[in-house]
Amino acid sequence: MAGAQTHRLDKGGLIDRSASLNFRFDGKTFSGFQGDTLASALIANGVKLVGRSFKYHRPRGILTSGSEEPNALVELRTGARREPNTKATTAELYEGLEAASQNRWPSLRHDVMSVNQLFAPIFVAGFYYKTFMWPAKFWEAIYEPAIRRAAGLGRAAGVADPDHYDKAWAHCDVLIAGSGPAGLAAALAAGRSGARVILCEEDFTLGGRLLSDGGTIDGLPVAEWLSRTLAELAAMPDVRIMTRTTLFGVYDGGTYGAIERVNDHLPSPPEHQVRQRLWRIVARRCVVAAGALERPIVFAGNDTPGVMMASAMRTYIARYAAAPAKRIALFTNNEDGWRTVEAALGAGLQIAAVIDARPDVSAAYRSLASKGGFPVLHGSVSGVEGGKDGVRKIAVSLTGGARAEVEADGLAVSGGWNPAVGLTSYHRGRPKWRDDIAAFVPDGAPPGMVAAGAANGDFGLGACLSQGFAAGAAAAHDAGHNGKAGTAPVADDEAFSLTPLWHVAGKGKAFVDYQHDVTASDIELAQREGFESVEHLKRYTTLGMATDQGKTSNVAGLAIMAAVSGRSIPETGTTIYRPPYVPVAIGAFAGHHRDETFHATRLTPSHHWAAEQGAVFVDTGLWKRAQWYPRAGEKDWLESVTREVKAVRGGVGFCDVSTLGKIDVHGRDAGAFLDRVYINTFSNLAVGKARYGLMLREDGIVYDDGTTSRLAEDHYFLTTTTAKAGLVMQHLEFCRQVLFPELDVQLTSVSDQWAQFSIAGPKTRDLLKEIVDPAEDLSNEGFPFMGAREVALRGGIKARLFRISFSGEMAFEISVPARFGDAMARNLMLAGAPFGVTPYGTEALGVMRVEKGHVAGPELNGTTTAADLGLGKMMSTKKDYIGRVMAGREALVAPDRQVVVGIKPTDKARRLRSGAHIIPKGQIPGPGNDQGYVTSVCFSPTLDQWIGLGLVERGRERIGEVVHAHDPLRGEDYDVELCNPVFYDPDGGRQRG
Amino acid sequence: MKYSIFSLARAALSGHKNWQRTWRDATPKDHYDVVIIGGGGHGLATAWFLASEYGIKNVAVLEKGWIGSGNAGRNTTIIRSNYGLPGNTGFYELSMKLWERMEQDLNYNAMVSQRGVVNLYHSDAQRDAYARRGNTMRINGIDAELLDLTAVKKMMPFLNFDNARFPVQGGLLQRRGGTARHDAVVWGYAHAASALGVDIIQNCEVTGFVRDANGKVTGVETSRGKIGAGKVGMAVAGSSSRVAAMAGLRLPIESHVLQAFVSEAIKPLLPNVMTFGAGHFYVSQSDKGGLVFGGDIDGYNSYAQRGNMPVMEDVCEGGMALMPMIGRVRLLRQWGGIMDMSMDGSPIIDKSPVDGLYLNAGWCYGGFKATPGSGFVFAHLLARDTPHEEAAKFRLDRFRRGAMIDEKGQGAQPNLH
Amino acid sequence: MRIVCPFCGERELGEFTYLGDAKPVRPVAGASEDEVFDYVYLRDNVAGATSEYWYHGGGCRAWLKVARNTLTHEISSVEPALGAGAARVGA
Amino acid sequence: MADFSWVSRSPLEHALVTGTHGARGVEAGVSLTEIRNFDLIQVMARRGQAAELAKAAMARFGVAAPDAPKAVQTSDATLIWSGPDQFFVLSKGSKHTMQTLAPALSSPASLSDQSHARALIGISGSKARIMLAKLSSIDLHPEVFPIGSAAATSMDHTSVTLWRGGNRPDGQALFNLLVFATFAESLWHTMLDAAAEYGVDISHSEELA
């Protein structure tokens, strides 16, 4: 059974006392209520020690009540859902929640690594740069592993995240960050004006500080005003309120990033639902009403559990009815901190004392003190006595030098407030300093964005409402909406008098960055060593680099740096603010793009037929292509592929080649256009003919190749390689629209319109005769090599037939409209059955192209010229074309270039491997004699040995030379002969036959 | 001040009151033998090698902001020498060898951690390309291993082997690759160079070149006044075009934004550096515990030092595809640097067409790993007026001659390198 | 970044592909190696206002000339390339 | 020698399973209907021929072809803008084919048959817009994307043509999507994933409504 909620207040709070929830922290069971955060529930149970710090493993308690929390980080959930570094202050309580403290061993109370504190005199900022250098090998072996184990915070699950994420877009006129008084007022004004509004609130309840601080708006108690306002907003159809949603970044063109924690408040997401959703919000205007963060004061012992931000303390009391302490002292330098005293007294808690660093305290609070019977001490806290179990005693240096002690079990601290300037500064804006509040405020913002209320440095409730309202109305107006906004909500402004105080000198460690254990003396040391720039300071000490992104530490840190370096705070400046505003799960940025849905999948028209045949598929770009079709009894891929090759060479086979890019080139100037993009000429291609074409990039290097046919006077059908299909389309559109706009050319991708099959082998014509209308003449005369025309098929559909060959066999490629692709495969099987037709995959295709010496991807590698590929003769000298001039540069026409050549091991039993390098025979391999490499290999069933292509220095002059294939990666060295790359039917008789 | 465990212990006893500045805060003199523009890793390393290897100590490094404020301070800290083309291979290995002795050279712990770099492959074609590259490395005396699937599984059992869109088939491993603490590299060179007499001058922006009647550069105009120089070297990657324009030069370079990311610190999860071969993602884990990762450049010219969401998403998609265990790890910080993207993806270290002005530019996104090597060969060029043999192919005129060093084969399209 | 395609309206960055500076003009046929080299390789690489080619490949496939500031990413104007929408020019 | 049967197979034939998908016990928030039998011809004006094409199209269809991102309903076809100087003619199968359109349009325009290059999906339901917001970056608010709006855009990095047809009889908006055939199955699965939480009603129809 759960322990009693010893620190739960009897009444009040926005918790649902009828919904009790059990949870576990470090294995111990507690109970809380619906509406609690893990932090508030721990507080209600009297838990003070919740974590250990990064470097010194110091015991730490809860410091804040929001996403700026540096200390109270836990591993939330267990198993595959374990989430390290989760802020207890924002984690919503649910039934069965499990959390564990982190960065401690064996337990939170007894952490062995806390011995680090003993070495604290050595472990100062930057100490590791000065040591661990000897002996050099010890770094990876000894020092670094030890440092790595000690560092880090929580443990990641280490197994795949079982939850789903998605991403979505939203659009609005006015985007509002924050649902405090300024945000709600902005939403009211913008919504009433007729604008489309999205309001994002990171909390699960709307209201911001209104939920904790109370007050009166429009003469109504805050709670009542809040419910009326929310009802009014809910009634506006174009106002969308998103809770549990943090606006974390602003990108160009009014695009904002937000993270919605859709189901983090449940043990796991319901079926079909995501854990979190990433929003890309497009907004014409944005009102940042993200409020301000109360800042600590740096003093010795300020990290003792029980020391808490004053505003957080009253949040726990007022909103969660949980008492962080029963006898509370307040250390403040401003008027606002006193509100915690009011809240505590109102909840029946004891005030031990108020330590106020200001010379004066207002009369109202002075009388509150006398009524409450607690002293007001003018001075500063100089030390804290206590430990794991919290604060016991507080040492005070009184103004004038005397000392005092205060007994208390909790210390509320208020050093003033820092506007949340993150969002407004993410476009590398630097905020400006305002002396009256001793804080940085936004100085400009990304286009379309404005800060209002506390986020703009105006902390009073009245100011927040009026500023927020005005900002919302103006934003709506700018977005073109001029409906009646009505009047702004009205409230009084509280007094805010502050005397800046950053650091109280004293004995003992005084923390600036709690999580990273950066102390005031670390900052002094950094200054001494020349790391005076705030960026150097950050990097040298790690100040502000913890999971709270410096929200509680940065300003104090640079104020201390300013003091020790004799500069003003604005002169010292801030570091660059970087998104995201709160840490965001990597899974959310990925959305559904993981596992098999990482990228889209393209399927060929005959895919499901091939799958029925048991094809093995290979990923080629986004495509799944049939790689080979294994048959029962075949022992490996090589056996299957060899069978397929033999079947083609000896009979007939077919292969789906629909993945080739296909482009319709129309227009009066289509031929002239192609002449400019190909190195060879197409304007003189006869209708009904196909031609192989090669295109270069403008730098003279080969870009792509393919066969292009002329189907009509003003219509060419261009094919590209599978890999370059989209890029060639883009390139051709560039040529058409930018380079040669004077030409009449229209381009359309028809890649998906046509299912295209290569049918190859000596019995191709026999097969085709079965399937093509008998009226079509397929004879060598009626349909010669490189012919291309439309034909009718039996059964009444039309196809395009191209007499082209990649395999070197008598071959055709046939195209049918894609929805007939599946039927085509089945019909080819049917028609070819008498001839032993064999479907073949990309491997067999590859084998035959290597046998035939055709270049492909490994040779078209972005560094080869047409001449390197043996295609230099195709380069027309009679016309201008893309890449012509640059192709003539001296190094691209040098005689010692690596060019395509055939390669075969002298030992026929030897396997050749791609990536082996070519070294002259008898030489020791070295950079000076590395003459090229093997680009493509295959086992050639035709030659009964491994063969390949390579790029070899002066290769074509060296046909017949025996060289060395050097493959140290695989421990192989063997002799190979450089040979004609066309291993098979070099005269081309078979494809023309 | 010599750093050692003893000096640290002594300092601890005195409350660390006796530490001196890591580098002297110099005020500019009227004239230096060599002025280096750019107080990043490359500029400072150049200065140190000029002083330590070439005996040229009357050197100033001018930095417009704080040292290391450019790409030296915003990168993903990876070091490796796994390049495949002549020109790059030897140079990056020279650099790797200098990394291996850096800390002893500089008396500064830059946390050079040789914990291995694995480039994963997902197709036969990619394997073949890595085989080619790995063999080039071996031929050049560089360590390289081709891992099969079993070896990858053993080394990185947490990758997605079960239901990946593009299953991992293996990888190319360079065990000597790894990471280094980027800021410490800058501070280490500053520390050591300053000790040899080099003036490191921060908050000193170069606003123009001083030229004599023949057009020779004889100094620089700066925000802290005119500074004379025997030679001026620029090492301002990201801003090379801007600085070169002051001398009337146009370069084969575009400036692009590259984003990088770090997660919250977590206990050790990733043993080595790895790159995904089927998407844009590479990652390592810092000693502090954060996953440091990145992907492709945003793809458009930019000096804004910040990027946009599509690339951020693309990178995280790659990460999740490769290892879905990082789904619940949170991205903590995102930043962007300006890359000097050259027209072939390889750097330029050469005399410029303007007498007296020397270029060190075009590092694309590979500048960090090159830091010591770049400093070494640039110092050589500045001292001897001839290129170091390992940088002999990084000439500016290689584009005109057609002798590009194009590892990716993308041609004169910088955003594709 | 969002680009207002003159044909489609405002669209998100992911629909577009960047090519580069729109200032260099492809030399006419017969130009020297030096001229073409300049066109292919040398860039002003301006920090500030530039004009660039972008391709709306994820949309209407128009090539666009985008006036953009490389320091701020702000876009001041977008116009179609000469041959995008060429059906409307005089034949 | 048997005549071969040429069974037309939709790119979604394998993936599409009629019935319900995703969340149960709720009224399906998204309805997905594949239309299988249609003709789709891309019409691209030749250089300088925009005015002639407009005239020819008016003569052929009785309405002006769209010259902005719109979809125009004619008595027997939908004309959908697909880019500068071009539009699609979508009709019931065999209604407007290459053969029937060429005489009227091929002088001022080039025609390209895309009937097999796309899958056509109708998307409706009370959650259609919110589901589409997961896939589409464009603003589908009724005032921004009213009936007759069209867009050449991308979903999940895949090029699509999206337009809003007339409302369904129950008053709900209907979005029509043309997706490249080889991407169709992949995008279909993505769409089902996106829609699962709302409950999906899946069907197909041979004929264009």
From TrEMBL, chain A:
<dbReference type="InterPro" id="IPR006222">
    <property type="entry name" value="GCVT_N"/>
</dbReference>
<dbReference type="Pfam" id="PF08669">
    <property type="entry name" value="GCV_T_C"/>
</dbReference>
<keyword id="KW-0560">Oxidoreductase</keyword>
<dbReference type="GO" id="GO:0008115">
    <property type="term" value="F:sarcosine oxidase activity"/>
</dbReference>
<dbReference type="Pfam" id="PF12831">
    <property type="entry name" value="FAD_oxidored"/>
</dbReference>
<dbReference type="InterPro" id="IPR028896">
    <property type="entry name" value="GcvT/YgfZ/DmdA"/>
</dbReference>
<dbReference type="Pfam" id="PF13510">
    <property type="entry name" value="Fer2_4"/>
</dbReference>
<dbReference type="InterPro" id="IPR042204">
    <property type="entry name" value="2Fe-2S-bd_N"/>
</dbReference>
<dbReference type="InterPro" id="IPR027266">
    <property type="entry name" value="TrmE/GcvT-like"/>
</dbReference>
<feature type="domain" description="GCVT N-terminal">
    <location>
        <begin position="607"/>
        <end position="879"/>
    </location>
</feature>
<dbReference type="InterPro" id="IPR036188">
    <property type="entry name" value="FAD/NAD-bd_sf"/>
</dbReference>
<dbReference type="InterPro" id="IPR041117">
    <property type="entry name" value="SoxA_A3"/>
</dbReference>
From TrEMBL, chain B:
<dbReference type="InterPro" id="IPR036188">
    <property type="entry name" value="FAD/NAD-bd_sf"/>
</dbReference>
<dbReference type="GO" id="GO:0005737">
    <property type="term" value="C:cytoplasm"/>
</dbReference>
<protein>
    <recommendedName>
        <fullName>Sarcosine oxidase subunit beta</fullName>
        <ecNumber>1.5.3.24</ecNumber>
    </recommendedName>
</protein>
<dbReference type="InterPro" id="IPR006076">
    <property type="entry name" value="FAD-dep_OxRdtase"/>
</dbReference>
<keyword id="KW-0547">Nucleotide-binding</keyword>
<dbReference type="GO" id="GO:0000166">
    <property type="term" value="F:nucleotide binding"/>
</dbReference>
<keyword id="KW-0285">Flavoprotein</keyword>
<dbReference type="InterPro" id="IPR001763">
    <property type="entry name" value="Rhodanese-like_dom"/>
</dbReference>
<keyword id="KW-0274">FAD</keyword>
<keyword id="KW-0560">Oxidoreductase</keyword>
<dbReference type="InterPro" id="IPR006278">
    <property type="entry name" value="SoxB"/>
</dbReference>
<dbReference type="GO" id="GO:0046653">
    <property type="term" value="P:tetrahydrofolate metabolic process"/>
</dbReference>
UniProtKB/TrEMBL annotation, chain C:
<dbReference type="InterPro" id="IPR038561">
    <property type="entry name" value="SoxD_sf"/>
</dbReference>
<dbReference type="GO" id="GO:0008115">
    <property type="term" value="F:sarcosine oxidase activity"/>
</dbReference>
<dbReference type="GO" id="GO:0046653">
    <property type="term" value="P:tetrahydrofolate metabolic process"/>
</dbReference>
<dbReference type="Pfam" id="PF04267">
    <property type="entry name" value="SoxD"/>
</dbReference>
<protein>
    <submittedName>
        <fullName>N-methylglutamate dehydrogenase subunit B</fullName>
    </submittedName>
</protein>
<dbReference type="InterPro" id="IPR006279">
    <property type="entry name" value="SoxD"/>
</dbReference>
From TrEMBL, chain D:
<dbReference type="Pfam" id="PF04268">
    <property type="entry name" value="SoxG"/>
</dbReference>
<protein>
    <submittedName>
        <fullName>Sarcosine oxidase subunit gamma</fullName>
    </submittedName>
</protein>
<dbReference type="InterPro" id="IPR007375">
    <property type="entry name" value="SoxG"/>
</dbReference>
<dbReference type="InterPro" id="IPR027266">
    <property type="entry name" value="TrmE/GcvT-like"/>
</dbReference>
